[in-house]
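Page 42, continued from yesterday. The earlier attempt failed because a stray header line got pasted into the input along with the sequence. Redoing it now with the clean sequence only.
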Amino acid sequence: MAKQPMLKFVKVGRDMPEKRDATLRARDFGEIYAEFASRKAEEQAGRCSQCGVPYCQSHCPLHNNIPDWLKLTAEGRLQEAYEVSQATNTFPEICGRICPQDRLCEGNCVIEQSGHGTVTIGAVEKYITDTAWDEGWVQPIAPHRERPESVGIIGAGPGGLAAADVLRRAGVQVTVYDRHDRAGGLLTYGIPGFKLEKPVVMRRNEQLEAGGVTFRLNCDIGRDVTFAQLQEEHDAIIIATGVYKSRDLAGPGSGAAGIVRAIDYLTASNRAVNFGDSVPEFESGELNAEGKRVVVIGGGDTAMDCVRTAIRQGAASVKCLYRRDRENMPGSQREVANAEEEGVTFEWLTAPKGFLGDPVTGVVVHKMRLGQPDATGRRSPEIIDGSDYEEPADLVIKALGFEPEELPKLWGVEGLEVTRWGTVKAEFTTGATALPGVYAVGDIVRGASLVVWAIRDGRDCAGAVLAQLNAAGAVAAE
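This time it went through. Structure tokens are written below.
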């Protein structure tokens, strides 16, 4: 009888891939975790309890079959593990790197609840797919037959690319439109290289292009091509623009030079550092933290990306202001810990009141306390009277989240309904909007959310589009 490779959690402790020393990793933009060796990956995968009700799977937006690919990994059957992982996830190596596993799969692991430490699901997922690329197991997109129908996808972020992948594998002709010069959306220009190295994203873009997906980049809908033209050209349209409009700061001095948007700051860094592009705002110092006292305002994952980027750019100091305490921040606790190791200072229960100087020289800060819970159940921050103080700053980065652009107005589209938050109204699971043949997925429907949810939406929507095309084809054949 073969030796049972699973249920090792009682004897084997949780272990992560080795993390590079903070003083060394803070000098570059390489990923901070090393790769699992095969023996270590098998050992850690073998800690899975193979529980009857896998909460890791049910709490994954993609419902990845995590217990099965952990078991296959523990048995050394890596190619099969990859095939199971790829069956439900278009980009498993990306999710393995950037998903907040501590809030999703790992945070709901049964053995974690019993005090044994969660299975390192994300690290194993990354290892499986990185190995698949290295071994040539990742197959090119090759539809069994070509179909005449055409689908246009607006936005080359994770939701749009996931939909493109599913549709192209079914033989549909797919064109992806994006305003940027490279596909990938926030995967390319928003998330720093120390969390997601850019060749990981580029090889997926190349796989899609080699498989027959057409990319029209540097293409701004409403300016370079109208929405009406897309409707004439394609049998269906999927809106996957994401949300890029930054929430703003109020208060005296908020328009001063040196107060910048997080998306501009991160994009400039990714272009200059990871792609070697010439970025005048980076080279001039406008969007470069080198030698500066940096204050980042916000507590989400974008704020974490900003503070850790500023450290790597050689900032004199980096502080993060967040109006709630550590336990109530929306960002990943793992990211906070990494930032602290690298030298970031967090000022909990603080918020900006105003700004000094132009260019900015400081932030006037309120101290806060947590009051009664709000409608979401979170305790509302309240200003402590007379607690103001000044925080010196040469660069202030606003990382307060994102809102949708006014697409109907921007594109001149009548009948595209939006919610009171400005997001596109779309049917749950299918993404169908009020306009026939027009769908919407990802953050433009949900509001700012996780990459894994955008992938889920893109895949679900692609299935609905295929159903629509099949139904139309059946009617035409009658």
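Notes: Residues 8-135 form a domain with the Fumarate Reductase Iron-sulfur Protein; Chain B, domain 2 fold (CATH 1.10.1060.10).
Reminder to self: strip header lines before submitting.
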